[in-house]
Write a structure and sequence with these properties.
homodimer; about 550 residues; alpha/beta; globular
C-alpha cells in the first residue's frame, strides 16, 4: 500500500488542522470559497467539462450495470442534460459492495482518512465543474452552486472525515493492562482494539443540495470503513455521479476495490431506494428529503442506523432591533437566496401587533411587512441581480406553490411573486418570493402557515405580542420540526425567552443577524446543521454522535 | 448551588483521572476491590444494615407511590427478604420525572458529573451492604457479590460518567468565529453550544447483575442530564432500590429534585416495563435480559433510543496449549463461577477429534473432556469452597435446566451436576456444573447446543478439526450472538484465524487465558463489555457511542 502511505503523508497536515478545528470551532477551511482562487481558466474549464458530458453516457469503469442507461435530469435553467447513467440491479450493487468491504474494512483509520482527503482534494480541484453540475440539477445560481455545492460541501465532508478519524482512534490500537495483586505478581494482559465497520451504507441524496447534504453521511460512513452506495435524487444525479467517479478513481489507485463506492441511479419513482433500504446488507442509511419517506425509513429500515433530515417550519421572531435596515436586508436576502429552497430558510416571520421597537422608531405590524416587502423588491429589482440571488425553481412542486401564492390561495399578498427573465438562460424558471399576511390565531391561516410550504412563499404572521411569538415559535418547533430559528430583539429578557424556547424545542437560534451572515447558512467546524432534537432531523452535521455508531470495536486480549 | 461547587471540588481529581484512564486503557480503579479495604467492621455493618431491612417497608421520601407496597424477592440462599417497595403508577412516575427534568437538565456537565461521583462515593462506602443485597437477590457468593456488585459495578458507572462528561464537553460552551472577508471587515459571531438532554430515561434491570449491568445506562443517562426511572427485576430490587435511595439523597442535598431518579418496582409480570417503554416521554431505554423482551423493545419502543443486552452463546475453541493444566483450571473456574449464570460465561467448548497438542502431549477429545471434568470436580470438591465459587441458583428456570442436564436430556454426561450443601444457608439452592458431550454435526445435538442454555450446563462439542471449530465459532456468533469468545492455541496461524472469525462475527476474543483472568470477566476502562456488532447486544459498555446520543447540542449565535 505504498500509494496509501503517500496519501497519508500528503494529507496529514490537513487532517491534523481539521482535528484542531473540530475542537476550536473558529472559522477554518482548506477549500477556498472564492471562485478566482482556482485559477483564471478554471470556470471555463469547468464549464467545458460539464458541457462535454451533455447527451453522453456517464462512464463508471468496473461499476455494476445492467447495460441500460437511466436519464431523467432536467435543468431548472431549461437546458437539456441528457446524461445517461448506468442502470443497476440492487442485488448486483450490494454484492459488489460486499466484495469490496473486507479490504476497505481492514484499512486503518489513518489510511481511510487519507483516501477520503485525496478524494476531497480532487473534488475540490474540480469545484467549477461541480458548480455547473449543481447549478443545472438544483437550480442554484452559479455563485451559490460553486460555494455551497463545492467548498462548503467539501468542508462538511472533511468535518465528517475528521470526526470519524477522531472517534475511531479514541482507543489505542494496543494497550497494556497491569493489575496489581498485592504481594503476588500482577496480572498482565495485552489488549488490542480493532475498529469493525458496521456494513454497507446507503446515502439517499436530495434534489436541492446533492453534495452539501450528501457528503456528511457519505464520508462519515466511508471513513469508518463501510462501503457506500450513493442513491442520488433522480433529478440531481450528476454532482453525486462525479463524486462517485472521483472516489472510485482514488480508491483504485490506492489499491482498494472501486466498488467500495457505487452509484444507484434510477428513473424517477423506480423504487430502488426502498429495495436497498430494506436489504439486510444495508446497515447505515443517510437520508435528506421529504418527511413522508424519512418517516418510512425510520419505521421500516429496522436493520439499519437511519439518519434523516426531513421537512420543518423555520420561524423568525421579530421583537425589536437597533438596526432596522440591517434586519430587513438580512431577512430579504435570507428569504430570496435560492428562491427559499433551503431547508434552513425561514418560512414564518412572527411580528407583534403591538409593534416593533427599532432604531427608526416604533414600527407597526403593517409597516414591518411593507418594509420587508420593499427590501425584497429592492434586492431583486434588477433581473440580472435577482437571478444571481434566486437561482431557479428546482421542480414543478415549488412552481405550483409559487403560483398558488400568486393566486391568493394562501392569503392576502403583501408581496406578489414575479417572473424573472434570465438573459443567459431563456428557458430558466425564476420567481421572486411571495409574502403573505396571516394571523396567528385564525384557524384557516394556522392550517396554512403551520405546515411546510417549501419554496418562495413566506408568511408574515401577526401575533398578539412577543410572548405570543415565543410561544408560537416553541410550538412550531415541537410540532412541525425546524432546522433553524431566528430572533431579533434588543431586550435581554426577550433574548432569554427566545433562548429558553429554542433549548426546550431543540432548535439552534440565530440572534440579531444584520450583516453578512444569514439565518439559513451554517459553517462546518463551527455550526451544527440541525440538532436531532426536534422532528425535522434525527441527527446533526456533524457531531460525535453522527459518526460514533457507524463502526464498532472488537477487542482481542492475551497474556502479556 | 454551593453544595454542587463543593462536590465538583471534592471529585475533580477522580474525574480527571478517569478521563485519563479512558484514553490509556490500563488498569485503574478508585474503588478498592478487597473487602478489607473498607475497614474491619464494614462487613458486619453491611450485614446489619441489610438485615435491618428484612421484612420492612423500603422508604423513599418524596417518591411517588400509590401507598401500596410490592414485594417479590426470594433469596437463592433460602432466607426471607420480605421487603416492601413503594408501588407506583407509570403516569405519576413519569410526571415526577418531567417535573424534575428542567433543573437537572440545566446543570452543567461538570455539575452533573460531580453529583454522579458523589452518588458513587456513597454507594462505594456501603459496598458491604450492597454485597448482601446483591448476594440475596442474585445468588452470587458473597465475595463475588461484593466485587462484581460493588466496586466493579461502580467502576462501570464511573466509566460511563467520565465518557458522558467527555462527550458533553467536546464543543466549547462559547466560541468566537471570525471569517476573513478579504479587504472588508471580517464576519464575527459568538456561538454558544448548549447540551440538551434527550428526555426521560428508563433502565430495566436484570436478575443476575442488577448493579453491574444497570449502572452503565443509569449513570450515562443521568450524567447527560436525563431523569432516570429505574425498573428493577422483580427478583432483584434491593440493590437498585439502595442505589436510587442514595442517588435521591445526593440530588436533594445538591439542590436538585430527588425525583430525578425514581424506582419503578412492580410485582412479577405486572407489565410496567411495557407501559413505561412505550410512553412518549421515555426517550432512552437501557435493558439487560431475555432476547424476547429485548427484541420487543427494539421493535416497539420507537420513540426511544434502545440499548439492549440479550442472550447469546459463548464459545471456546481449544486448538492447542503450552499450559494444559492452566487452561483446564482457567476453564473450570470460568464455567463454575456463579454457576455459569453470567452472560459472558462460555457455554460451548469446541474440541477437535484430531486431538489437542499440549505441553503434556497430544490429548484426544475424550481425554480433554475427562480432564476438564476432573478439573471442575477438583475445584468444587469441597462444599464450602464450591459454594464460594458457585454461589446459588438464581431462579427456577436455571434449576430446571440443571435438572434436565442431570437427567440426560441434553446428551451424554461427562460430568453430572451435584447438589452442594451450604453450612451457612441450609436453604440455599446450589448445583455444580453439568458437562455434556455432543457432536458438532449431529442435528439433534446442534439443536441443543446452538441455543442459549443459561446456567450450569456446558457442552463439550466434538468438531472435526480446528478449522471446523473456527467456522462453528463464527457461525454461532453471527446466528446466536455472543458476549465473549475464547481461544486456546499455540499456532500463530490458528490465532490469526480466530481473530479473523471474531472480527467478522463482531465478538471480542480472549486468547490463552491460563492465569487469574477469566474469559467471563471484563474490566472497566480497559475491556469493552459486548460489542454491539452481533445479535447478543446492540451496544457496548462503554464507548463513546454508548453516551454520545443521550443528549443533543443546541447552538445560539449572535454578532460579536
Amino acid at each position: 500500500m505504498a500509494a496509501v502511505e503517500a496519501l497519508i503523508e500528503r494529507h496529514q497536515d490537513t487532517l491534523a488542522r481539521a482535528l484542531t478545528a473540530l475542537a476550536d470551532r473558529d472559522y477554518w477551511s482548506p477549500y477556498p470559497e472564492f471562485p478566482k482562487a482556482y485559477g483564471e481558466n478554471a470556470p471555463a474549464e469547468g464549464k467545458a467539462a460539464f458541457e462535454a458530458r451533455l447527451g453522453t453516457a456517464f462512464e463508471l469503469p468496473g461499476h455494476p450495470t445492467t447495460g441500460e442507461l437511466v436519464a431523467g435530469e432536467a435543468s431548472p435553467y431549461g437546458i437539456e442534460l441528457g446524461i445517461g447513467y448506468p442502470r443497476v440491479e440492487a442485488d448486483a450493487l450490494l454484492a459488489a459492495a460486499r466484495a469490496a468491504a473486507p479490504t476497505w474494512g481492514a484499512a486503518s483509520p489513518a489510511e481511510r482518512a487519507a483516501v477520503c482527503l485525496e478524494i476531497l482534494a480532487r473534488i475540490n480541484a474540480r469545484s467549477h465543474e461541480f458548480a455547473q453540475a449543481v447549478m443545472h440539477t438544483t437550480g442554484q445560481a452559479y455563485g451559490m452552486a460553486f460555494q455551497a455545492g463545492g467548498p462548503h460541501a467539501q468542508d462538511r465532508a472533511l468535518e465528517a472525515v475528521a470526526y470519524a478519524y477522531a472517534e475511531q482512534t479514541r482507543l489505542p490500537e494496543r494497550a497494556g493492562w497491569t493489575k496489581p495483586q498485592g504481594k503476588r505478581d500482577p496480572l498482565k494482559l495485552i489488549k488490542d482494539s480493532v475498529v469493525v465497520p458496521r456494513g454497507t451504507a446507503l446515502v439517499i441524496g436530495c434534489n436541492t443540495f446533492p453534495t452539501w447534504n450528501g457528503y456528511p453521511g457519505l464520508f462519515a460512513s466511508l471513513a469508518t470503513g463501510n462501503p457506500v452506495v450513493v442513491k442520488p435524487h433522480p433529478r440531481a444525479v450528476l454532482p453525486l455521479a462525479l463524486t462517485v467517479l472521483i472516489a472510485r478513481e482514488v480508491l483504485a489507485e490506492a489499491g482498494f476495490d472501486p466498488n467500495t463506492v457505487t452509484l444507484a441511479a434510477e428513473h424517477d419513482r423506480e423504487g430502488i431506494s426502498k429495495t436497498l433500504a430494506l436489504h439486510p446488507d444495508v446497515k447505515i442509511i443517510d437520508y435528506t428529503g421529504s418527511t413522508e419517506f424519512g418517516d418510512w425509513l425510520e419505521e421500516n429500515a429496522r436493520q439499519a442506523l437511519v439518519y434523516t433530515e426531513k421537512a420543518g417550519v423555520n420561524t423568525v421572531v421579530i421583537d425589536s432591533t437597533d438596526d432596522y435596515k440591517g434586519m430587513l436586508n438580512n431577512l430579504a436576502f435570507a428569504l430570496s437566496l435560492y428562491t427559499g429552497q433551503m431547508c434552513t430558510t425561514p418560512q414564518n416571520l412572527l411580528i407583534p401587533r403591538t409593534g416593533v421597537a427599532t432604531d427608526q422608531g416604533e414600527k407597526s405590524y403593517d409597516q414591518v411587512v411593507t418594509d420587508l416587502a420593499a427590501a425584497i423588491e429592492g434586492l431583486l429589482g434588477d433581473d440580472a441581480r435577482a437571478a444571481a440571488v434566486l437561482g431557479a425553481v428546482v421542480n414543478p412542486g415549488v412552481l405550483q406553490r409559487s403560483a398558488a401564492a400568486a393566486g391568493g390561495e394562501y392569503g392576502e399578498l403583501a408581496l406578489a411573486p414575479r417572473v424573472v427573465e434570465s438573459a443567459e438562460f431563456p428557458g430558466a424558471t425564476i420567481r421572486t418570493p411571495a409574502l403573505i399576511k396571516v394571523e396567528a390565531h385564525k384557524p384557516d391561516d394556522r392550517a396554512v402557515f403551520l405546515s411546510e410550504c417549501f419554496g418562495p412563499v413566506f408568511f408574515a404572521v401577526a401575533v398578539d405580542n412577543t410572548a405570543d411569538a415565543v410561544e408560537l415559535l416553541g410550538r412550531t418547533v415541537r410540532e412541525q420540526g425546524a432546522m433553524t430559528a431566528t430572533g431579533y430583539t434588543t431586550s435581554p429578557e426577550v433574548e432569554r425567552q427566545l433562548v429558553r424556547a429554542c433549548l426546550d424545542g431543540g432548535v439552534s437560534l440565530s440572534l440579531n443577524l444584520t450583516g453578512g451572515v444569514y439565518p439559513n447558512q451554517t459553517a462546518a467546524f463551527s455550526d451544527l446543521h440541525g440538532t436531532g432534537a426536534n422532528p425535522a432531523a434525527n441527527a446533526a452535521y456533524t457531531d460525535a454522535a453522527f459518526v460514533a455508531s457507524r463502526f464498532r470495536v472488537v477487542q482481542v486480549r492475551r497474556p502479556a
